[in-house]
Amino acid sequence: MFTGLVSAVGEIVSVEAGDVHRFAVRSPYAAGGIELGASISHAGACLTVTSVKADGEGAIHTVEVSPETLARTTLGQWCQGSRVNLERSLKMGDELGGHLVTGHVDGIGMVRVVERDGEWTRIGIAMPEALARFIAEKGSIAVDGVSLTVNTASAETFSVMIIPHTATVTTLGALKAGDAVNLEVDLLARYAARLAQFEKAAK
């Protein structure tokens, strides 16, 4: 479980393609603080650490990605030099500063527009039709693993506003029209929609 508060931006240093893709990721995390089998969110996708080694004051860890995950996320587009948002898993007692994020990507969105409004940035994203009922104004959504508040929402698109700090410490500040992003809808919205479905069927 995660909060959607990115704690580092990693860099893909190597890609090993095959039945299982293996990615090596450089991060500022201390190698001694990453255990084998640990869960780390990568651009919103929860992945398991399969190896780790020190790299200066930081570390290089590897993760393995299945064909299913590659097909349902943007991870198949990663190449050497790609930058990815990272978040360590939530521990008991940690502050929940964003919203509950599972690290299970629900779909891929497409950036339609990026507009500057003073120091703020508005990003308009086209969403898969199946996710529209889970996304509402003032609700929460994770975009590439970043917890954000939905600013506006229609049947096909939604928008978010990015503060300067978020643009600086995550990959969102570099987004442009045409970029693909991982989306995870709010867990509470998912259960509310499921409950409404059963209530409707019972009538």
Describe this entry's structure for a reader.
By secondary structure, this protein is mainly β. The protein folds into two domains: 8-88, Elongation Factor Tu (Ef-tu), domain 3 (Beta Barrel), CATH 2.40.30; 107-202, Elongation Factor Tu (Ef-tu), domain 3 (Beta Barrel), CATH 2.40.30.20. 14% of the residues lie in helices and 43% in strands. It has three helices and twelve strands; from the N terminus they run E-E-E-E-E-H-E-E-E-E-E-E-H-E-H. The chain has helices at 67-72, 164-169, 187-202; strands at residues 8-16, 21-27, 39-42, 45-55, 58-65, 83-88, 107-117, 120-126, 140-143, 146-153, 157-162, 180-185. Strands 1-2-5-4-3-6 form a six-stranded antiparallel β-barrel. Strand 10 and strand 11 form a beta hairpin. Its EC number is 2.5.1.9. Keywords: Repeat, Riboflavin biosynthesis, Transferase. It catalyses: 2 6,7-dimethyl-8-(1-D-ribityl)lumazine + H(+) = 5-amino-6-(D-ribitylamino)uracil + riboflavin.
User: What string, H for helix and E for strand, traces the elements in order?
Assistant: EEEEEHEEEEEEHEH
Text of the CATH class of the largest domain: Mainly Beta
Q: Spans with pLDDT under 50 lasting ≥5 residues? A: none
Strand portion: 35-45%
Which structural class do you get from the secondary structure elements?
Answer: mainly beta
The total number of structural domains is: 2
Overall 3D form: globular
What gyration radius follows from the Cα positions, in whole Å? Answer: 17 Å
The major β-sheet equals:
6 strands, antiparallel, barrel
Strand order of the largest sheet: 1-2-5-4-3-6
CATH architecture of the largest domain: Beta Barrel
